[in-house]
Amino acid sequence: AAWRSRAQRRHTPALLEPTQSKRFTTNRMGGGTLIRGLMSVGAAMLLLVMPSVASEADVTASAELVTPIDIVGEGDLSFGTLAVPRSGTCVYDVTAMGGSVLSGGAECQFLAGQILQAEFSVACEADALVTYEVIYTNSAPSGATFSAPSNPMAIDGFAASGALQTRACDADGLSDVNAGGRLTVTPSAPSSFTGQVGTIRLEAQYE
Q1: pTM
Q2: DSSP-derived pairing of the beta strands 90-94 and 181-185
Q3: CA pair distance 6, 8, nearest whole angstrom
């Protein structure tokens, strides 16, 4: 019927227009999109305001500065002229303090010439501990042997002692090192020999 009674109109549920249903759905979806958008912005803001966390550590740098050790050979060791025995063995020592000692038969003699210990000067840090070592190399002719004597080294006037010693560098930064030597001579040694019988090397390093 083209018209309805008031009662019918009251009890008949109103039908939504299709366009109204679309608009309602769009509003719901739009609301959901808005919430998701706000959540994304909130996460970005959280990352922006979060404080930066850093750590750090220090280590130290250290060094020891010293005067380099410099060794100069100041004087060669000399046995002078020695007797070659007809029998037995002669042992000739030049001490680190410059003395002479011999052992063997009556034919063993220091005959002539200067008897001199080896001499070195060592520039080093004043009062610093230094380890010294004398090293002997034999180059004597057949029938003779060059080597270290007992207590071969004396440093800065102290009593002679071993081939390896540790002492403080002299207060003026210059230490004196003397070294002795031993020559063992047998009857087979050439009686007309004159020349080098060996070498003495001094090594030094800081403790």
Answers
A1: 0.71
A2: antiparallel
A3: 5
pLDDT along the chain (207 residues), means of 10: 48 47 46 49 53 87 92 98 97 97 96 97 97 98 97 97 97 97 97 96 97
**Hey, which bits of 86-186 come out as E strands?**
90-94, 100-103, 110-112, 118-123, 129-138, 144-147, 153-155, 164-168, 174-179, 181-185
Instruction: Name, in order, each residue with C-beta under 8 angstroms of 188's C-beta and a sequence gap of 6 or more.
Output: 142, 143
CB 200 within 8 A of CB 178: no
Residue 164 makes CB contacts below 8 A (sequence gap 6+) with: 131, 132, 133
3-class DSSP assignment, residue 193 = coil
Q: How far apart are CA 155 and CA 160, in angstroms?
A: 7
Please check whether residue 58 is in contact with residue 195, taking contact to mean a CB–CB distance below 8 angstroms: no
Q: Which helix (H) or strand (E) holds 162?
A: none
Q: Is 180 helix (H, G, I), strand (E, B) or coil?
A: coil
Q: Which helix (H) or strand (E) holds 203?
A: strand 198-206
Q: Which residue type, as a one-letter code, is found at position 194?
A: T
